[in-house]
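Reminder to self: tokens first, then the designed residues, so the page reads top to bottom the way the pipeline ran.
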């Protein structure tokens, strides 16, 4: 057998053991045996009576596995005790999948009948612990693996802590139908009990702790419960649709906002690029013109030196060079340094969408605005600073050279 199916026997044994349950299939998961809830009954809400039986279907989530159990309880006394509500019981526990209802009911009844036959005499349990039960696997137990199917649409995230008791026929054919029809009701209830005992039904009704319905001739309350389930499923679906529609609108607004921010970012940077292009072109023209001004004056200085070496009168050379010097200075004064380039934004706020599904209808959230990272691009280093420094150096060199020769008075 696979670990998807476990067979369990349990009972009440009085002092000192109380309620005990034991896994009897070979290779049972010990961790699972310690983790699941017990199959004990809340005897303040429901109780077994002599010659009565009680069937149950239960849901549970353990270590990420979806557990569904099918159980049967029958009245049995504890040794040396007349305490009421005691019992012996059996259960088939399925992990993540369940078997067909027919083989489930047949195996459950066969196992429990043998359990009663070998361990109960005159309505008294003959052992003091479930570990001591004499048991025998049903003959079709190994066939269960070939009759497994997916668990229905069950909400196993949160326990509802609600219990339903159905007063109905519990013959094998009826049980097959009830197990099939009520599995989805485990979305509303943790455990659903089935009994044909009027004493059990009366006790449950008087205590009022569990919901009691009837599914006998003239009373079809189970259909109403199934209708309530369908209404609840419809309500959850509609709530989920509304949630998704609201989330869709939010995403669309964020998308529109992000698109608009990119549009503005692109337009602004295109404008800055165009302005920088114009400044670069203007700077190129100014650089060319400045070079020509410096070159022209330097040529005049060289020419003055040559004229002086040729024994031309210094005052005439000075007068001639001073005219060119004034023109050179006037042109420098008219020269404008290029404007610094405008920095280009290299990032923009972005919207990140995170999806988180939760139980039930599933919730989507949330939005975070990303941070803008400001970095300096090495390519943005201002080349015109280098040009300016070079031009100033040439200017100072030329002026010093001119002054050296012009200060002599012949």
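Designed residues (410 positions):
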């Amino acid at each position: 057998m696979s670990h998807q199916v476990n067979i369990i026997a349990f009972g009440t044994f009085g002092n000192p053991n109380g309620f005990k349950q034991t896994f009897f299939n070979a290779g049972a998961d010990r961790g699972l045996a310690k983790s699941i809830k017990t199959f004990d009954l809340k005897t303040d809400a429901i109780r077994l009576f002599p010659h009565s039986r009680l069937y149950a279907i239960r849901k549970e989530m353990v270590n990420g596995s979806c557990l569904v159990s099918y159980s049967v309880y029958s009245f049995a006394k504890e040794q040396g005790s007349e305490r009421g509500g005691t019992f012996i019981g059996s259960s088939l526990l399925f992990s993540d999948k369940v078997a067909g209802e027919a083989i489930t009911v047949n195996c459950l009844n066969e196992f429990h009948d043998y359990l009663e036959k070998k361990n109960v005499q005159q309505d008294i349990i003959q052992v003091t612990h479930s570990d001591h039960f004499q048991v025998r696997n049903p003959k079709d137990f190994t066939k269960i693996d070939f009759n497994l199917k997916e668990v229905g649409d069950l909400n196993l995230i949160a326990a509802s802590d609600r219990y339903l008791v159905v007063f109905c026929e519990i013959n094998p054919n009826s049980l097959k139908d009830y197990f099939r029809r009520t599995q989805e009701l485990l979305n509303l209830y943790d455990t659903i009990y089935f009994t044909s005992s009027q004493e059990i039904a009366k006790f449950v009704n008087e205590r009022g702790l569990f919901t009691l319905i009837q599914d006998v001739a003239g009373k079809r309350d189970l259909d109403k419960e199934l209708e309530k389930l369908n209404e609840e499923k419809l309500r959850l679906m509609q709530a989920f649709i509304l949630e998704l529609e609201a989330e869709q609108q939010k995403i669309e607004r964020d998308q529109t906002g992000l698109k608009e921010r990119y549009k503005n970012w692109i337009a602004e940077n295109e404008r800055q690029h165009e302005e920088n292009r114009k400044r670069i072109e203007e700077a190129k023209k100014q650089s060319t013109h400045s070079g020509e001004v410096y070159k022209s004056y330097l040529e005049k200085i060289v020419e003055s030196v040559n004229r002086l070496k040729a024994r031309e009168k210094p005052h005439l050379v000075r007068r001639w060079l001073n005219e060119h010097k004034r023109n050179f200075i006037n042109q420098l004064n008219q020269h404008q340094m290029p404007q610094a380039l405008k920095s280009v934004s290299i990032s923009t706020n972005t919207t990140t969408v995170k999806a988180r599904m939760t139980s039930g209808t599933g919730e989507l959230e949330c939005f975070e605005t990303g941070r803008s990272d400001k970095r300096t691009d090495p390519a943005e280093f201002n080349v015109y600073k280098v040009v300016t420094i070079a031009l100033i150096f040439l200017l100072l060199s030329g002026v010093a050279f001119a002054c050296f020769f012009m200060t002599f008075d012949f």
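Residues 224 and 402 are 113 Å apart (CA to CA).
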